[in-house]
Write a structure and sequence with these properties.
By secondary structure, the chain is α/β, with parallel strands linked by helices. Strand 11 and strand 12 form a beta hairpin. Helix 6 packs across helix 7. The radius of gyration is 23 Å and the shape is globular.
């Protein structure tokens, strides 16, 4: 027995040493870390967030941005002083150069007395920019809008090396406290979450079921929600272990990339993946417990918008870990299918299964809507609607269609219209953010562009955004233009 233990210990040691060596080798091949990777701004702790109000949060947030010129911009080396670096003070993408810095938290007030309030939660590596079109729709409908910058975001990617998901949730509680304070109890309180923000919105709503001190949302909208992530995220903490030695600091990063996007980090630390895994693991366990105890009947109606194919979060988890447990409470799931026209059908891979293969057989306890092609011979869009409790499908023609060059939507595309000035395929020229990422269709020599070609090929806007907005207004009982 002692001999077996020795052999087992030796095997474990060899595996660990090999893993460590591979991680070190992989990390050393990454580009050098820059000031925006190594500077870690000080965010409020969970206890500080729970004891703070909205003005205190904005004050602390302002201090983060005030530190950037001295801690980051002043240390940009000559090689990085280029227009494509948002952390170069002379870059047209530097937030200091923009007419409005959407990296920061914001509050939008409607004309007249608010008829409700909404809190918007953005995604991982993202910023409040991502939900600004949703924010304006709510403001037009007479709602007071709070767009929250989650801790670790909007400043430098290095901030995500030290943040915890519990800080994101504490900031969510703070924003909802402020929304409820500004709008009386009798008026609607909505919660909208995108990607990781969707996971946080759902986690908060589950927590509120058992905590009377937490104001409950009356409506919950999730866009590409982070209910499940890839299995690699489970081991992100182990993968970053070599970074405890300063010589191997790059091992703390999955990606070290140029930072040309003014409102989103491109570099990605392993801690961000680790926090995603911890959040979704806790969320799925809580969903299962609450479903077994019958508490999900107290949840507000859910509305979820999800692409059938999603490289960032798990589409099956949305259906199997969330919607499979929901009661018949008026919830709705909108799936965006692939462009299955004849131009792409022969090129779709084995992983491009149909919505019917993913959704359970009707009748279901929620309304399901699949947005896709009218037929293989047409890129024109239709919505295939199956009401809760029914197995009849209604086909509703849409005014929108897949662009002929787009074979699917993506995780990042859903909350952006085609006219978005940064991500749109047909950007609004009235706003300039230094780059128009969605409109780039480029050809040339290799090794010239800062951005890799795969990133440029990922669609970043939603041709069906008008329908998304229409469903949001109908399901959320919003009346645009009537404050």
């Amino acid at each position: 027995m002692t001999g077996l233990l020795k052999v087992g210990s030796l095997v474990v040691a060899v595996v660990a040493a090999t893993f460590f060596a591979v991680r070190v080798y992989d990390a050393q091949g990454k580009p050098d870390l820059q000031p925006w990777h190594t500077f870690v701004p000080h965010e409020l702790s969970v206890a500080q967030l729970d004891g703070a109000d909205w003005p205190r949060y904005l004050q602390a947030e302002q201090a983060l941005f005030d530190a950037l010129p001295a801690e980051v911009y002043a240390h940009v080396n000559e090689a990085e002083r280029i227009p494509g670096n948002r952390y170069f003070e002379g870059s047209p993408s530097n937030p200091l150069k923009l007419s409005h810095d959407w990296n920061r938290s914001y509050l939008l007030e409607p004309p007249g007395v608010p008829r409700g309030a909404v809190v918007l939660l953005h995604g991982l590596t993202d910023s409040p920019y991502s939900l600004r079109h949703i924010a304006r729709a709510y403001q037009d409908a007479g709602f007071l809008v709070i767009g929250l910058r989650l801790p670790g975001h909007g400043t430098v990617p290095g901030s995500l090396t030290n943040v915890k998901w519990q800080q994101w949730l504490a900031a969510t509680r703070l924003a909802i406290r402020e929304a409820r304070r500004r709008v009386p109890d009798g008026l609607p309180l909505h919660l909208v979450g995108y990607s990781a923000g969707g996971g946080l919105a759902l986690k908060y709503s589950l927590d509120a079921l058992g905590d009377p001190s937490l104001p409950r949302a009356s409506h919950l909208t999730l866009i590409s929600p982070m209910i499940g992530v890839t299995s690699y995220a489970r081991f992100a903490g182990l993968a970053g272990l070599p970074a405890i030695f300063p010589a191997f600091a790059k091992a703390a990063w999955m990606d070290v990339l140029p930072e040309y996007n003014p409102f989103k980090y491109n570099s990605f630390p392993l801690n961000a993946a680790r926090q995603s895994y911890l959040l979704t693991s806790e969320l799925q366990a809580q969903l299962a417990r609450d479903a077994e105890a019958g508490r999900l009947a107290q949840l507000p109606p859910l509305q979820t918008f999800q692409s059938l194919v999603d490289y960032t979060v798990s589409t099956p988890a949305v259906i199997e870990a969330l919607y499979a447990h929901l009661p018949d409470n008026g919830s709705e799931l909108v799936l965006f299918d692939l462009n299955r026209s004849l131009g792409f059908e022969a090129l779709l891979g084995a992983g491009s299964r149909s919505p019917a293969a993913l959704l359970p057989t009707p009748p279901r306890r929620y309304r399901s809507i699949v947005v896709g092609n009218a037929s293989l011979a047409s890129e024109q869009g239709v919505a295939r609607v199956t009401e809760a409790g029914s197995d009849d499908e209604q086909v509703v023609p849409l005014d929108q269609a897949f662009p002929h060059e787009v074979f699917s939507l993506s995780h990042v595309a859903l909350p952006f219209p085609m006219s978005d000035s940064l991500y749109g395929l047909h950007p609004d020229e009235r706003e300039r953010f230094g780059v128009q990422l969605g409109a780039l269709s480029v050809r040339g020599e290799r090794g010239v562009l800062l951005v890799n070609m795969e990133a440029l090929q990922r669609v970043t806007a939603n041709p069906f955004f008008p329908y998304l907005l229409q469903r949001l207004q109908a399901h959320g009982h919003l009346q645009p233009g009537q404050p």
